[in-house]
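Morning. Coffee machine broken again, so started the prediction first thing and wrote up yesterday's gels while waiting. Chain of 100 residues, entered below exactly as on the submission form.
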Amino acid sequence: MGKQVRWRAWLGMGDESHLSQIDVAEFASCAAARAWVERRLSAVWARPGLAVFGSVDRGVYLDETPGAAAHWTLDPHWAGMDADVVDGQVRWHRPGTRCD
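Came back before lunch.
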């Protein structure tokens, strides 16, 4: 069984009733994924009532069956990281917590 660690960074937008993923990219390191999110969030304009946010998740490509395509699976032992823009600055926090 092969195992390749990869970091998925994504941007989302939405309000309290609906969230949508608007972009996603994959990286070999957490630092590269975070830098991508920070660059993208710094360049995004959001209208009042609409939040734009980012997230980084760690996962692995598992090659469970010889000859089959490997598939990305979220690492259940890594909590992930979310990013919001607060007062013009990108602030990182763990999912489920606020960075007000």
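The CA atoms of residues 38 and 58 lie 17 Å apart. Going to sketch it on the whiteboard this afternoon.
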